[in-house]
Write a structure and sequence with these properties.
31 helices
C-alpha cells in the first residue's frame, strides 16, 4: 500500500467527517455485481445469446444495454422491459451496506446511481428516493438536506421511469435530472465507484461539459488486491485498486470496518433466465432486433444481411414494407443513393396501399434526403414539399421539412436562394420554438448562421453562432459545441479578428478532446490554429501546432496533408530565422516526392537547395510546389526559384 493511496484515503476521510464539506457518491452497476446480479456486459450478452438465430453473436456485439432495450422496446414493446426482472433481488451485499454507512456519517452526503435495482434502498430504508422527473423537480426546488438517492435511469419499482430512460437515449437527460446532476457537480466533491462513465448519450456529456472546481475521485477496479496506483489530472483523481479493499480501508479509517459484513457476496445463478424470457419472441422479431443493432453500430452489411433474413420469415405487407425501409437505410449509409431510393420507393408503395399517412410522410423525407445527398436538389425539393403537404404545420415533421428545404436553397447559393433559405430557417425555428425542440432550434440556427456567412453578413453569423454555442453548452452537447466553435473560428478569421478566431478554435479542440473525437478531427483544428498563429507572427506557437499535426499525419500515412504541414513548418522556421530547419522541412517534402517517383521535381528542387545562393528569397516560393498532384504549378514555381538561386537550366 503506497503513500499516495494512503494520502487519498486521509483526504476522503476528512471530506466525509467535515461538517463544512459536501460529498456525493456516484455508483454504477459494478457495485451490484457481488449480489449475484449481471453487470451491463452480462445483461447484454445474455440478451444477445437468447435472440441470436443461427450464429451466436454474444461475443461479437458490444452495445449499451439502454440502447439495446430501446431497440427491443420499439419492436416487442413491454416484453423488452420484462428482461429486467433478472435484476430483482432482495440480497444486498457489503458494497450497499458500505454506501449507506458512508452516507449516514456525512453532513449532506447523497447517493446518485444509474442502477435500476433497489438494493441500496433495502439497506437504508429511511432514505428518500428520487426516480422520476417530478421527484427530481420537487427536490431541486427545495434543495433539501435530507439524505436522498437519485436514480438517474429510473427504478424497477416504477416501470414507467425505465421506459422514460429508454427515451433519453434518443436525446439527452431531461432538464430536471440534468439540473440536479449539474448542481452536485458544481457544489459537491464526488466519488465514482462501480461506474464506467460510458453513458455517452446522457450522463457523460453533462460530466464533461460542466465546469467545476470540486474534486472527482474515480475508484477504478483492478483484480490484484495488492495493487494501488494513483493518477491525478487537475481536479480529477483516479485510484486504481481492488474496490472491496478500498471500501475496507476507508471504513477502517473511520472505525466502521467491523460494522459491515464483508462476506456478503454471491454468485450469479440466472443462466437459464434469458433463454426462457426469449421463448415467445419469434424468428422475425429476433432477426429484426439484430438488424437494428447492426444499424446502430454502423455495420451496414451485417444489417442488410439480417434484414434479408427477416424477409424470409414474413409474408405480411406491413413487415415487408418496414424491412424495405430499413434496407433503404443501410444502402443510404453506404452512400449507395440509387439503391437506397429504390428500396425506399418499394416501401412507400406498400405503405401507400396501407394508407399509413404518417409513415408515408417520413419515407418521403428519407427519399428527399437521399436525393439531396446524391446532388439531385430538384427531386429533393419535390419530396420535402410533399412532406409539408402531408403533415400538420405545427409538427416537428413539418419543421424538419422546412429546414431541409432551406438547406437546398443554401446549396444552390444564388442571392435569391439564400434569401429564401433564411425565410425557411426562420419559419422552421418558429415551429420548433412552439414545440420547445431545443436541438431542432439549434440545427436551424446553425443553418441560418451558415447562410448569413455565405451572404457575407459575418457579424450576424458570428452573433448567431455564439447564441448556438451557449444553447449547445446548456444541454451538454459537446460535439455540437465543438462544431460551433469551429464555425466561429472560420467567421472570426474571415473578418480579420485572428486572436478571437484562435480562441474559438482552441475551445473547439477542448470539446473534441473531451469526447475523444477521432485524431484526424483534432488535428484539423490544430492545423487551423497553426495557420492563424503563422499569420499573427506567433511563430513558436505555430511551430508547436504544426509539429503536432506532422506527427499525426505521419502516423496516419496521410502524405498530402503531411506535405502541407511541412510546407507551413518551413514557413514558420523561415520567418523565425531558422534557415537550416526550413531547408530540412523541404528535404522531407522531397523524400515524399521521391516516394511518388517525381524525379524531375525532386532533382530540380535539390539543385536549388544545394545552390545556397539567395536561398532565403527562394524559400518563400517553395510553398507553390507543395502540392505534388499539380505538376504544372510546381514546374512553374521551380522556374522562378531557379532564377533566384542562379541555377543553370
Amino acid at each position: 500500500m503506497n503513500e499516495e493511496y494512503m494520502n487519498e484515503l486521509r483526504e476522503l476521510k476528512g471530506l466525509l467527517k467535515d461538517e463544512d464539506e459536501k460529498l456525493v457518491f456516484f455508483v454504477g452497476a459494478g457495485i451490484s455485481k457481488p449480489s449475484g446480479l449481471p453487470d451491463f456486459e452480462g445483461l447484454t450478452k445474455g440478451i444477445i445469446d437468447a435472440i441470436s438465430t443461427g450464429k451466436n453473436l454474444k461475443n461479437e456485439i458490444w452495445i449499451r444495454p439502454e440502447v439495446l432495450l430501446l431497440i427491443m422496446h420499439d419492436i416487442i414493446g413491454d416484453k423488452a422491459i420484462d428482461v429486467l426482472d433478472i435484476l430483482k433481488s432482495d440480497i444486498p451485499t457489503y458494497e450497499h451496506f458500505f454506501l449507506t454507512k458512508m452516507a449516514a456519517i456525512g453532513h449532506g452526503n447523497f447517493i446518485i446511481t444509474t442502477n435500476l435495482d433497489t438494493l441500496i434502498e433495502q439497506t437504508y430504508k429511511e432514505i428518500e428516493v428520487c426516480a422520476d422527473d417530478e421527484e427530481f423537480e420537487q427536490w431541486f426546488k427545495k434543495r433539501r438536506k435530507e439524505k436522498c438517492i437519485f436514480k438517474i435511469h429510473g427504478t424497477l419499482d416504477k416501470r414507467d421511469t425505465i421506459i422514460a430512460t429508454l427515451d433519453q437515449t434518443r436525446g439527452e437527460l431531461p432538464r430536471t435530472k440534468r439540473e440536479v446532476l449539474k448542481y452536485f457537480i458544481k457544489n459537491y466533491d464526488m466519488i465514482f465507484c462501480g461506474y464506467s462513465n460510458r453513458d455517452y448519450f446522457d450522463i457523460k456529456s453533462v460530466l464533461s461539459s460542466t465546469e467545476t472546481e470540486k474534486k472527482r475521485f474515480w475508484i477504478c477496479h483492478t483484480e490484484k488486491k495488492d495493487e494501488f496506483k494513483v493518477e491525478r489530472k487537475e481536479n480529477s483523481v483516479k485510484i486504481f485498486c481492488d474496490t472491496k479493499e478500498f471500501m475496507k480501508d476507508l471504513s477502517d479509517s473511520l472505525n466502521l470496518k467491523d460494522q459491515i459484513n464483508w462476506d456478503l457476496e454471491y454468485e450469479w445463478s440466472g443462466n437459464g433466465f434469458f433463454k426462457e424470457w426469449a421463448t415467445d419472441i419469434g424468428p422475425y422479431n429476433k432477426n429484426l432486433i439484430i438488424a437494428h443493432i447492426f444499424e446502430f453500430l454502423g455495420e451496414w452489411n451485417r444489417a442488410e444481411k439480417y434484414c434479408n433474413k427477416c424477409l424470409k420469415e414474413t409474408e405480411e405487407d406491413a413487415d415487408i414494407a418496414e424491412i424495405k425501409w430499413h434496407l433503404g437505410e443501410t444502402h443510404y449509409k453506404k452512400a449507395e443513393w440509387d439503391t437506397a431510393i429504390d428500396e425506399y420507393k418499394e416501401s412507400l408503395k406498400i405503405f401507400d396501399r396501407l394508407g399509413d399517412e404518417k409513415t408515408i410522410s417520413r419515407l418521403n423525407a428519407d427519399i428527399g434526403l437521399a436525393y439531396y445527398k446524391k446532388g439531385n436538389l430538384n427531386d429533393a425539393e419535390r419530396c420535402y414539399k410533399r412532406v409539408m403537404g402531408l403533415t400538420n404545420r405545427e409538427t416537428k415533421e413539418y419543421a424538419d421539412a422546412l429546414n431541409r428545404l432551406a438547406l437546398i436553397y443554401y446549396q444552390r447559393g444564388t442571392a435569391n436562394d439564400l434569401e429564401e433559405a433564411l425565410k425557411k430557417f426562420d419559419e422552421s425555428i418558429r415551429v420548433k420554438e412552439k414545440l420547445k425542440d431545443v436541438r431542432g432550434i439549434i440545427e436551424s440556427n446553425n443553418g441560418k448562421a451558415l447562410t448569413l456567412y455565405k451572404q457575407g453578413k459575418l457579424d450576424k453569423a458570428i452573433s448567431l453562432h455564439e447564441k448556438n454555442f451557449q444553447m449547445r453548452k446548456d444541454i451538454g452537447d459537446l460535439r455540437g459545441s465543438g462544431q460551433t466553435c469551429y464555425n466561429l473560428g472560420l467567421a472570426c478569421a474571415a473578418i480579420g479578428d485572428l486572436p478571437r478566431a484562435i480562441k474559438w478554435y482552441k475551445r473547439c479542440r477542448e470539446c473534441y478532446e473531451k469526447i475523444q473525437s477521432p485524431i484526424q478531427e483534432i488535428s484539423a483544428v490544430d492545423y487551423r490554429i497553426g495557420e492563424l498563429n503563422l499569420k499573427e507572427c506567433n511563430f513558436e506557437e505555430a511551430l508547436k501546432q504544426f509539429e503536432r499535426v506532422k506527427e499525426v499525419m505521419e502516423g496516419l500515412g496521410d502524405w498530402h496533408r503531411l506535405v502541407n504541414t511541412l510546407n507551413n513548418l518551413s514557413k514558420a522556421h523561415f520567418k523565425k530565422g531558422n534557415l537550416n530547419e526550413s531547408v530540412e522541412c523541404y528535404k522531407e517534402i522531397l523524400e515524399i516526392y521521391e516516394k511518388r517517383s517525381d524525379d524531375e521535381i525532386r532533382n530540380r528542387v535539390y539543385g536549388c537547395l544545394n545552390a545556397k545562393q539567395n536561398l532565403s528569397d527562394a524559400l518563400e516560393l517553395f510553398s507553390e510546389i507543395k502540392d505534388s498532384l499539380n505538376k504544372n504549378k510546381a514546374l512553374n514555381a521551380l522556374k522562378r526559384i531557379e532564377k533566384i538561386c542562379d541555377v543553370p537550366t
